[in-house]
Amino acid sequence: MTGIGTQNGALNGTQNGVENGARNGAEDGGQRIVVAGAGLAGHEVVRRLLASPDFDGSIIWHTAEPGRPYNRVLLTDLIAGRHTPDAISLPALSDPRLTTRRRPLNSIAEAEFDFLVLATGADPVIPPVRGNAVPLRTLNDARTILRALEDGARRVAVVGGGPLGVETACALARRGVRTDLVHRGPHLLSRWLDAESAALLTDSLSTAGINVRCDTDVSAASGTWPGADLVILACGSRPRVALARAAGLPLGRGILVDGDGRSVGDPRVFAIGDCAQGGGAVGAFAALEDARRAADAIIRQSIRRSPKEAIAAPFRHAALRLRTYDIPGADVAVLGPPLSDPTIQLTDQRRRTRKALTLDGDAPVAAALVGDVRAAAALARAIGDPATPVPGVPVALLTSAVGGGAAGFDRV
Amino acid sequence: MDASAAVTRTHCPYCALQCGMELRSETGSNSGGAVPLRADGWDAFPVNKGALCQKGATATELLNPAARLTTPLLRRSRDAELETATWDEALDFAASRICDLAAAHGRDAVGIFGGGGLTHEKAYSLGKFARVVLQTPHIDYNGRFCMSAAAAASQRAFGVDRGLPFPLADVAHTDVILLVGSNLADTMPPALRYFTAQRENGGRLIVVDPRRTRTAEQADLHLQPVPGTDAALAAGLLHVLIAEHLVDEEFIAARTSGFEEVRAEVLRWWPERVEAVCGVPAPDVRAAARMFAGADNEGGAGNGAGAKNGAGAKNGAGARNGAGVHNGAGITASTGMVLTARGTEQQADGADAVNAWINLALAAGKAGRPYCGYGAITGQGNGQGGREHGQKADQLPGYRKITDPAARDHVAKVWGVPADSLPGPGRPAVELLAACGSDIKALLVAGSNPVVSAPDASFVSARLAALDFLAVCDVVLSETAALADVVFPVTQWAEESGTMTNLEGRVLLRRQAIAPPDGVRSDLDVLGGLAERLGRPGFLTSPPEVFAELARASAGGVADYSGLSYERLDASSEGAGLHWPCPAPEHPGTPRMFLEAFGTPDGRARFVAVGHEPAVEEPSADFPYRLTTGRVLAQYQSGAQTRRVRSLNSAEPGAFVQLHPDLAAAVGVSEGDAVRVTSRRGSAVAPARINDLIRPDTVFMPFHWAGAGRANSVTRRTTDPVSGMPAFKTAAVRVEVER
């Protein structure tokens, strides 16, 4: 798969013109690393570098938001009442080699580094909506929302039927708040699910008391949602690329990177998490995976020997895995690229579950699960890793928690 | 029913249960006089209550003189064969080789490798022999392969390491058991009754194992993680407890410290991430956490997620709990236990993984209360006691640290030597074996067969072969003994008296039932004979005397045996033994620990903030699957004993490779085909057993055999940095048909 763990990766990197910065840094007493951003990806890359016995450099860490770094994945947990806002901090990192600067990095050109890791995240897309409208991107946003709920907001509209919108609506419903989920597209999760799967999901959300409205553009109509005391905006995000743009790094929607997470314009610069645009997935799993790859690449380049044992291969994760707070039927997992033209479909209208799988020959290439996701972990592996054994009767992939044709489907 | 004089009550030679046995003469059926005794269960002994497994019931076969070594063997030069020798010849030869090699290379060039099956008297004497006679720091033992991770984790969390802090029978009375990486239905069958009783009492059992073992079949909920990902799974369960307000805040505040760091760590492990890393469905992670907390059955039997049928009905009950806010009533009142074994411990992060499970027990308030707690299911017969009295590289008797000046003073005084003459800490087992042939020139092995049982066994065999001198004390000519320059035939369980400590910390007296065959002596006699020849006459060889000295040496230590004696153990409620600590002759022993306070200086249990990193050796294109290893019912450890018992060997005559039908199909293997399992270290070949009781990405081999089917040819020497435990249970492998 990726070239991780091979010596070639390191050699190629060196040949790509890294040797000046890297080697000079090493001679001066270690690599100088600058990390910008303190979300999951930024925290993870700092944590991994400090934990590596092979890392002998120093790190300057720019954290933009106030307070301790926290786990952004759990913001919807706050809405659901599972944690208090000060309780979702990430583990404190303290180390003599680490200097934390509680301000954003201003300019790449002014920074001194052998390697720079951009983990600047993304900004929420804010449509022109009037009234009491708040995005849910930061801990401060969550605090604002919680305050509004505690102040008596009784009916909340969530604008945006993507992953964050569905999760937020579920969190609100779990909290017992009357919730409208308003989506511009034809059906929920339209980038991820087909209409039939989305319809079952909508049924389940409706049963839980969530009022789902699709084909509805709030900003185009009245500019607000009638009856809502609070509007939560979950209209997607835009990679934060100002620093990279100012430095002239190649951009697409995000900072364009190679398989190691290196900017295609400057091998000394990594971009990870939501600010980056590689070939792969998005979200928290991808951010953690990006951070691991970047940390490995930096360490590989700073040591001049091959690792004693093979470096860990990446784990296989779902492309989309919703957190839906036990709302019956609302679990969603999408494995591989968005589903198209499924080969096998299992739909249970009564239990509102649907599992669809696309095969290329006998090889699974994409799957989507709604309502019953117990097969997700095994499917992620089967799709992500060609060495994973797959059952002779592929439908069994949709029915087993550990993979394999063990669920009553006869082998042929 | 009659002549009680003909009955000897003693304990089984095998696992850590140390089942009570009654040995009787085989009168009448003197069929060639092959087996002189018969073993029956001892009804009154509280652990097994009369039950014996197949291994215990047939243990007397090895008492047949024809089945065991009865004369010393000597290899007069490295190229020569082993020949029979007299005891004096063998002892003289061994002493002179040790003396010469120590003179030439220094005292540190001599090492000892002991075993967790040895009696206290032997284990203690090996430690004393190393420090006082050889004056080498290098002594360690095969318990490093067995209990070290759990031991290190328990010490970090509780300040004390005792396998179970409660009697095994308590298991039957707890509400929920979380059993991690143990197949005790096969490895210690007489223990299963307590788990069955627990479920009959209305309790629930959660089993964590990559395989659907006979034990997992009993479970209300079976989690089947990718081997080596347990720390992440445990963190995921604790994450759920925190998110759903199921932690016992009162207990945490009153009896523990360190929770905030652990909270921050586990909040990185939300169930969907755990699902991706461990391969366990997030709904099952939640179901397990709720079940463990006793919070899953409110509103009736709604929760079927992953339970029993495995079919994954939705999170019934959990979904009804409002915003996951439980009122707490009835939760802290429930009881629970976390029990771990080798599956979670024999990993490159074994100690951290165990602490992750302990964190879960502490956060749920399920420790330090009746019918609650964390326990390790100890493996070897004296796996507990063998790690308490100085057989470990960093340790002195009484579970004392060899680096602690007060401990050194105390023990040196008992031994009658200056404290500064005692060596410091030596190399842990894997390092010790790896140094053979280089820094270590001479090695004495007792009660262990590392050629079969050590990780990366081909490497270990080569290291042992590279020694200038190897001496082995054993009952039979094990694969390791076959490499030796001198083999001492030593007494086994029914042929000697000795004490053992079972998995409950229960100190037991094994009583001699039969005289050893001519030509056989105790390991204590070997050490005494060598000590005399090395200029240290008077080394104690009588088991009661050795025990009395051990008791004095342990006084004031964590594992305090100073109130114990052969007389007390013999008299203790019909010989049921006494639980340590037992610091005075009138002290009743300590069946249940931690009810008042934990063993740390401030009496609080410690949360240990541990994360999870992927195994250092993850599957790759060349080695795309994982091997995990383990045990079968009819064999024990390296098989040196059980492979010599006819009925056991016909039940399980050789190694096998368990693999899933999908994997078998992918690599073209049919049932019974010879399968080659290859890692970066080496390969093993054994017949295929194809079934869907294992993850499709994982293969399993039992490790009891030598030769082509030796699973440890494939395993790795990588060790847990905290405990020195080798990562037996996860190796990246490829799987092929052997043609």
Task: Explain how this protein is built.
With 412 residues, chain A is α/β, with parallel strands linked by helices. Helices cover 27% and strands 19% of the residues of chain A. In chain A, the strands form 5 sheets. Chain A has a 5-stranded parallel beta sheet. In chain A, strands 6-10-7-8-9 form a 5-stranded parallel beta sheet. In chain A, α1 (7-27) crosses α8 and α2 (40-51) runs parallel beside α8. Chain A is globular. Mean pLDDT of chain A is 86; it is low at 1-27, 307-313 and 406-412. Chain B contains 24 helices and 28 strands. The radius of gyration of chain B is 25 Å and the shape is globular. Chain B has 739 residues and is of the alpha/beta class. The termini of chain B are far apart. In chain B, α3 (120-134) packs parallel to α20 (523-533), α8 (230-243) crosses α12 and α16 (405-415) packs antiparallel against α21. In chain B, β25 and β26 (683-690) form a beta hairpin. Chain B has 4 domains: 7-67, N-terminal domain of TfIIb, CATH 2.20.25; 73-146 and 382-490 and 505-579, Rossmann fold; 149-376, Dimethylsulfoxide Reductase, domain 2 (3-Layer(aba) Sandwich); 625-737, Barwin-like endoglucanases. At the A-B interface, α8 and α9 of A face α10, α11, α12 and α24 of B.
Q: Give the count of structural domains of chain B.
A: 4
Unreliable sequence segments of chain A: 1-27, 307-313, 406-412
Largest sheet geometry of chain A = 5 strands, parallel
Using the coordinates above, name the CATH class of the largest domain in chain B. Alpha Beta
Biggest interface, chains and residues, is:
A-B, 63 and 64 residues
Instruction: List the strand order in the largest sheet of chain A.
Output: 3-2-1-4-13
Report helical residue fraction of chain B.
25-40%
Radius of gyration of chain A over all CA atoms, rounded = 23 Å
What distance lies between the first and last C-alpha atoms of chain A, to the nearest angstrom?
30 Å
CATH topology call of the largest domain in chain B = Rossmann fold
- CATH architecture verdict of the largest domain in chain B: 3-Layer(aba) Sandwich
Oligomer: heterodimer
pLDDT under 50 segments of chain B (min length 5)? 298-332
Strand content of chain A: 15-25%
Average pLDDT of chain B: 92
Largest sheet of chain B: 7 strands, mixed
Q: State the shape of chain B.
A: globular
